[in-house]
Amino acid sequence: MSLPASSGGLGRWLGDHIAQIVLIPTLLASFAYVVLFSVWTFWLSVSTSTMLPDPTFSGFGEYAALWQSKRWTVSFSNLFVFGTFYVIGAMVVGTLLAILIDQRVKFEAVWRTIFLYPLAISFIVTGTVWRWIFHPQTGVELALHDMGWISAQFDWITDRDLALYVVVITAIWHASGFAMALILAGLRSVDGDIVKAAQIDGASVPRTYARVILPTIWPIFLAVAVVLLQFAIKTYDLVVALTQGGPGVATTVPAIVVFDLMFERGQIAQGSAAAVMILVALGIVLIPYALYMRWRKRQEGGDHG
Amino acid sequence: MAETTHADFDALSTGSLRRRITAKAIVYALLTVFALFYLMPIVIILANTLRPLDDIVRTGFIAWPADPSLSHWAEAWSTFCIGGTCEGVSRYFKNSLAMAIPATIISTMLGLINGYILSKWRFRGADLLFGLITLGVFLPPQMTLLPWAWVLGNVGLSNTISGLILVHVVQGVSFTTLFCRNYFLAIPDDLIKAARIDGAGFWRIFRRIVLPLSPPIVIVAVIWQFTGIWNEFLFGTIFTSGDKQPITAAIVAFSGSGTGERHYNVEAAAVIMAALPPLFIYLVGGKYFVRGLTSGAVK
C-alpha cells in the first residue's frame, strides 16, 4: 500500500501505529482491572490483613479457616441448591413459554414483552417487591386470612428450610424470560423440513418438540445454562433485598459472606479468599465451556483451514 | 389431513377442527396464567402506591385498593425520610442519573473505537488483547472491591459519583468493546481497504464508514449499559454513603431497616420510581434490548 510520504520519522511512525496508540488507555485500564486487581485480591487472601490491608505474606491459612467456617460451607451449599433449582427452573419455564409463543399466537410481541420485562428491573426492586408478597405480615398469608381462611399459613420466607426456595422462585421470575427469548430464537432457527418430516410420520406436537425440535437446539440450552449459572454464582443483590441472607444463614450465599468479611467483620484476608473462591467457581463453569466452544468452532471451520 | 403437508409447519394446524380449537385454547390459557404471574408483582405494587397506610398495615399488600390517593407519589419523590435526610428519593434518582448517563456515554464511545481497532486495524496480538478486555465481562465484582476502594481513595474519588462513573466505565468498556468488535466484523474489509487506498486515515475511516453503520450497535450498547449501571447495587453501596448513593442503595437503606414505622405506600412509590427508567427504556427499545442480551450473554 502506498501511503503519501509523511513529514518526519516520528510522524510517520505515529501514523502507522495510531490504532495501537489509541487502544493503549483501554488496555492499561483492562490490564489493571482484570490482571492487577485479581492478583491484588489474591495477594490479600494470603496476607496477614485484618481490618486494613497488610501485604505481609502469611500463607493459605485463611482458605483453610474459610472452609472450616460453618457460614461459608452453608453459603456454598445454599449456592449449590439455589443454582440447581434456579437454572433448571428458569430453563423449564423458559422452554415452555418459548414453545407456547411458537404456536403462532396472536399478539406475540405483547406476550414476549410481558415475560421479559422482569429482566429490565433491578434485583433490588425485584427482591423488595417479592419480600412484601412473601412476608406473612404483608403478603399472601395476610390476604388469605383476610379472605376468611384464618388458619392459612404461608411463611416460607421466615422458614429456615424453605426460605431458599423463595429466592429460587423470585430468581426464576426474573430470569425465565431471558431463557425464553434465547430458546425462542433457537426454535425459529430450526429447519422446517425436519419438522415437517416428523409431522408426516405422524408424530404428535409434544412428541415432535421433545424428539425433533428441542434436541437440535441443544447448544442454545447449554449457552443459557452457562449464563444462568454465572448469574447464580454472582447472586448478591437479590438476596440482600429479599431475605438479607436469613433467617439465620438459611439464604446466605458466598457473595454475602465476602461482603461481611471484608466490610463488616474486618477480616480482609479471609474475605479476599472467599472472593477468590467465587472466581474459581466461575472458572469451573466458564473455562470448560469456552474450551468446548473453541473446539467446536475448530471442528466446524475445519474445511477452510 | 392431506393438505397439512403443503402448508408451512404450524404445530397446531394438525388434527381435527375440534382438537385444533382445544389445543389453541390450552395455549392461550397457559399464556394467560403465566402472564398474570409475571404482571402480578408490578400490579400489586402500583395499587399499593395509592392506598392509605393504615389500610395496607391492616390487610397487607394483596387487597383491593380503597380511597386511592396520589399523594404518596409526591411524598416519595420529595419529602420521604431515607437515612436521616427527608428529601425523598429525588436526590438518589438524580444521583443514579448523574452516574449512569456519563458512564454510559463514555463506555459506549470507548467501545466503538476499541471495537473498530480490534476488528478493522488488527495487528499481531490483537485477538489476545481482545480476550484480555473481554475477561472483564466475567470477573466477579468481589475480586475488585478492595483494589477499587484503594484506587478511589488515592485519587480522591471516595464517596463521589465521579468515582462510581470511573468504576462503571472500566467495567463497562469490556462489554461495549465486545459488542462493537463483534458487530464491526461484519463490515467488509474491502470497504476499509478501498478507503485506505483513497488516502483516508484512521479517524476519517472511522467517521465516514464505521460510525454511519453503527447506530444499531450503539443502541444495543446504550441500553445495556444504562440498565446495567442504573440497576447496579454492590459498587454503589460500598463506594458511596449517605446522600451520594444511587437509588438502588437508597431502596435497601429504607426497606432493609426493620426498625421504625413503615410507610409501605410511599416505599412502594419509591420502588416504582427506581424501576421506571430501565423499564421505560425496555419498553421503547425492546427489540434492541433482546439483541444485546443474546449477543452479550452468549458470546
Query: What name goes with the CATH superfamily of the largest domain in chain B?
Result: MetI-like
Our measurement of the CA-to-CA distance between the termini of chain A, rounded to an integer number of angstroms, reads 27 Å
Q: What would the CATH topology of the largest domain in chain A be?
A: MetI-like fold
Q: Got a strand count of chain A? A: 0
| C-alpha-based Rg of chain A, rounded | 26 Å
Please indicate the percent range of residues of chain B in DSSP E strands (runs of 2 or more): under 5%
How many separate helices of chain A? 14
Radius of gyration of chain B: 25 Å
Largest sheet of chain B: none
CATH class of the largest domain in chain A: Mainly Alpha
Write the CATH homologous superfamily of the largest domain in chain A.
MetI-like
User: What is the CATH architecture annotation of the largest domain in chain A?
Assistant: Orthogonal Bundle
Low-confidence regions of chain A: 1-6
How large is the share of residues in beta strands of chain A?
Answer: under 5%
Shape of chain A: globular
The low-pLDDT segments of chain B are: 1-8
Number of domains of chain B: 2
Give the fraction of residues assigned to helices of chain A: over 70%
What is the number of strand segments of chain B? 0
Structure description:
The complex is a heterodimer of chains A (305) and B (299). Chain A has 305 residues and is mostly helical. Chain A has helices spanning 9-16, 18-45, 61-68, 70-101, 108-116, 123-134, 140-146, 163-189, 192-200, 205-216, 218-234, 237-242, 254-264, 268-300. Chain A folds into two domains: 1-45, no CATH class; 61-300, Orthogonal Bundle (MetI-like fold), CATH 1.10.3720.10. Chain A is built from 14 helices and no strands. The radius of gyration of chain A is 26 Å and the shape is globular. Chain A starts with 8 loop residues before the first helix and ends in a 5-residue tail after the last helix. The radius of gyration of chain B is 25 Å and the shape is flat. The longest helix of chain B has 32 residues, at 17-48. Chain B has two domains: 2-78, no CATH class; 90-298, MetI-like (MetI-like fold). Mean pLDDT of chain B is 87; it is low at 1-8. The interface between A and B is large, with 103 and 94 residues.
